[in-house]
Known about the structure:
Elements: H1 13-18, H2 25-29, H3 37-45, E1 48-55, E2 58-65, E3 72-75, E4 78-82, H4 91-98, E5 101-107, E6 114-124, H5 127-132, E7 143-154, H6 157-162, H7 170-174, H8 179-186, H9 193-206
Antiparallel strand pairs: 1-2, 1-5, 3-4, 4-7, 5-6, 6-7
Helix pairs in contact: 8-9
Amino acid sequence: MSNSSSPHQITSTEQLENMFDAVGAASIRKEVPYIHAHYRAMIEASPFAVLATRGPDGLDASPRGDAPGFIVVDDEKTLLLPERRGNNRIDSLRNILFDPQVGLLFLIPGIGETLRVNGRATISVDPALLDRLAVDGKAPKCVLRISVDTVYFQCARAILRSRLWQCASAGELAQLPSPGTILAALSNAEIGGDKYDSELPARQRATLY
């Protein structure tokens, strides 16, 4: 819980701005209200993005991924994001019905710069659009049509500091709990466990689309 009386808590925009240097020209000029050709190239090279939404129960950030260019640039002001098979929670879609504002963060493996897009989304089940974005003959459940408000690239510092594209060692990965282990702990062993882990890779491959 925050303590508004703490002398160390920032409570005003003026306090916040006084902590930082002036914004550089590059940080301002890189932001545009449309998808520039260079930004289009980044979107078409990206196999992974994080979709941020806001709903009545709070915020959500959801991973989205497929072959590079899976989020389609329809024109310089419009992106098309197919809704592939997932866990059926539809948190992002529920949120969009409440508040159409969305944010996208695109990542490209091996590249330090990321791309940020802010806009407003609607949910479409237009048959022609579903057919257009089908993979292996399987159409998405629906398509997010995102009207772009702002686009800009983010510098590589976060990626460099995190060493995101450097693979962890097998020993480091072995220390992490598996999905089955997590589910077993959270469900009092009603679901999860070794059987869940052993069946998960095949189930995922069979239900990608």
